[in-house]
Amino acid sequence: MSHIEEEFEKIERDQGWNTLFRKLANDHGVRTLEKKNDIALLSMNRGLNRFRDVLPYDDTRVRLQGGSNDYINANFVQVPWAKRNYILTQGPLPTTSEHFWQMIWEQNTRVIVMLTRLIEKGCNKCWLYYPDYENDSELSFEEVDLKVTFVSERQDEHYTQRKFELTNLLTGETRPIIHWSDFDWPDHGAPSSPEPFLQLLYDVRQCGAFDSRFGAPVLHCSAGIGRSGTFVLVDSILKMLAHTDNPNDISLIEVLAHIRTQRHGLIQTAEQLRFSYMAIIAGLKELDELEESEGLFNESDFDELSESDNEENVKLTKSLEDINTELQKRADNYQAPTTNDTETSLRLRLERLKRNEAIEKKVNEMKAKLHEQTQPSSLHHNKNTSILTLLLTKYRRPFFIGLFTLLTGSICLYKFSMNSDRTH
């Protein structure tokens, strides 16, 4: 039994999670007494924070390099004993989505892990800052000269993997991005079991999130401290345990205290702290497999998919039936590791073609209606139409109103004349 498991069982027996969590909060307050977050409190930056009490420390905050304001609610979090670097940030707001993608570009990040849903219990937790194809196939952020394009989507049992292309509109350079989301993790709470979380951690490692050739992965939930902090703690502790000859020297409490000095409030509840212990204990049983999963970021996956897309572009002039047959044939025969991604991309391309045809049909209908409305009036268009017929049909109402007015005026004029004659 590991010393972390022994600690867990002791705290469980003593029902001491709330007591331990309060003690850690007090210790954290002492350790960070001199820490400042003055930049976050500037009047021009207050509206860029999702929560008033979750602010980045000045000394570890991420600074944007382009534009007039370098502020974003994000921090670098480093765990040197695990040789791990992360960027933790809040869920983007409508007004900060462009800053988020600017940070992704400037930090050369390739992997984003989103540990919140857009809406939870009727509350907005994060803005839809990425194209999910259901709403948009691409999003342009002209303020920062960036464009995000949807490439593919893969639905797993517990979460979703999406692939995007991030394009610099000034230089034309394009970078592949892998985005993990839709993991079932309640706000201020913890998953019911650590197994799905460990599977997510396995996949995030495997996709090359920690490839040293690129920037640190970006983790965010809603505030960027609770679920995101739990991810950092579990991943870094498991990494340290895999590369030490003295596991008893590794203190979960000390690592937590260290990462909290880099971003305020990491791990928000006693329940999340308890889950961290549970996930690490479960991860120890699969430690070798977790370590072997860690790989390099494979940009060729995106290149192969792009080549396939280019081949399909040539066939867009064919009929829908021919295109559907061709796409199905390619999806059935394609044997590369990214078969699921390719099938999704081809399916979405077909849907896009159908949608474009429907839009074109609507446009043609609108043009036809507009053309009908701009035709000459029937009075000039059909010379055989009599004036009387028009007066009794199309202009019936104004005709009778005018006739009634004429008769009334004539009667009044006649009476006026008769009265004048009698007076004389």
TrEMBL record:
Domain named Tyrosine-protein phosphatase is located at: 4-283
Q: Where are the transmembrane segments?
A: 399-416
The question of whether Transcription regulation is a record keyword is answered with no
Residue sites binding substrate per the record: 187, 221-227, 268
EC top class named in words: hydrolase
Its cellular-component GO annotations read: endoplasmic reticulum; nucleus
Q: Where does the record place the catalytic residues? A: 221
Q: Which Pfam families match?
A: Y_phosphatase
Matching entries from PROSITE patterns are given as: TYR_PHOSPHATASE_1, TYR_PHOSPHATASE_2, TYR_PHOSPHATASE_PTP
MF terms (GO), sorted A to Z: non-membrane spanning protein tyrosine phosphatase activity; protein kinase binding
Compartments annotated for it: namely:
Endomembrane system; Endoplasmic reticulum
What EC number(s) does this enzyme carry?
A: 3.1.3.48
Q: Which SMART domains match?
A: PTPc, PTPc_motif
Please state every residue range assigned to the domain named Tyrosine specific protein phosphatases.
195-274
Print the keywords alphabetically: Endoplasmic reticulum, Hydrolase, Membrane, Phosphoprotein, Protein phosphatase, Transmembrane, Transmembrane helix
Q: Which family does the record assign?
A: Belongs to the protein-tyrosine phosphatase family. Non-receptor class 1 subfamily.
Q: What is this protein called?
A: protein-tyrosine-phosphatase
Q: Which organism is it from?
A: Adineta steineri
